[in-house]
Amino acid sequence: MKIVSKLKSPLFSAGLLLILCGCAPPYSEPDSRKDSFYINLYAYPLYVKNGFVPPESIRIPELSSDPWQVIQSKPDLRRSVSIKYTGLPDLPKRVFLSPFREKDREYTMVIPFTVSPEQFEQFNEKKSPQPGIFLATLGDNWEIFLNGYRVKSEVHLDEEGQILSGRNWRYISLPLDRSMFVRGTNILALRIIGAPNYDGTGLCYDDPYYIDEYEIIQKNHNEFLMMAFCGVYIFVGIYHLLLFLSRPRDRFNLYYCFFSAFLGIYSLMRSHSIYSLIPDTNITYQIEYAAIFMALPLLSAFLEHLSFGKTTIVTRVYGAFCLLLALAQWIFPRPFGDDILRVWWVSDLFGFAYIIGYGIIYAFYRAVAEQKRAAGKPPRKALGDALIKTPQGNLILGVIIMSAAGVIDILSSFFMNRGVFSVSNYGFFLFTITITLVLARRFGSLFHRLDTMNTALERSNVNL
Would you say 319 and 297 are in contact if contact means Cβ atoms under 8 Å apart? Predict the structure, then answer.
């Protein structure tokens, strides 16, 4: 019981957040490293043009003339290089929520970068580590060339040159052969295929893009902890499904089951590991969007059933709206799905405000009032007891932790350049664990009351 009480402590939750952040691979783009292996590709200009240019025919002087479009690098400036934002001629504009997709086209992106004499010598040492490349994202179909050598190809086209299977991958890490590098200027060429007005065509993430030791790249972007989170989410979902089946009247267990399972699916779809199982990102994005669209109305339904024993018309209507969005993005092409995502972002502001205001704050207010009525406690004592001893108060603490993690992410993105590492992942994980502990305590309290009643019945039988 002492251990359980510690798990319920807000100090324990906050401490666990710090431990998780400390145990996680503390990723930050190593642009200040002194290692001779590291090459920040975003420190160099990027050139782009319509059509595919065979990499062996690319010449540096030609890059500064038409029809190449140059995107200059600037110190400490992140750049997203989706084709639609490059300023190339004849780029069609997309009509918002249009159910039609432009025909796929081919483009060439080139990043000339410099290998110093020291780096070249290190690349060619027999015992030197293997170099590698990391790209935050690349889509929609693509090929990677280094000095004319093909590094990786993910081109899947039909007879008309249109994409059959999407490869808009995140967090791409690939080993490089040392023999590909030359002393001085090297050319990284990307063959890009995709719809010209689709955000996912090109390099749609701001950062990072770099060359380093392949072992360091794998260490920086290890997904072990995130996979563990996915497993926990799905396992907790299955556990609460079993609780619901054993006690169907507690429908909040069913809502939490789906909420937790959808979080696990969403996190899994955003990982690079999923591509070994489902390489087609047209499928993974559809699953990802459907999971996150439905998570918020399920959370609202869970909180309302937990605190009030029923769901409101607001939650039911919002849930139907999110289900409609989830189904719509399955029917139409991927660019339409991104438009649907923007619609959901706007509706998400309303949904989140409703959950915080009604499902958590108002429910907590009622819990404080009940504490005052039940034992005649003074307001400060009732507030403290409600915060620590009631499910609504525990959820308030969970929201505080999750919000603090979000603030840390915002500050670190401005001042610490934390890159793809996100404290919010851990804050949200702790929020879901808080909910799990709330339900566990509720179940334990119910079991204790039943045990007390059984003991009283046994004593009555003995007396009779």
Answer: yes
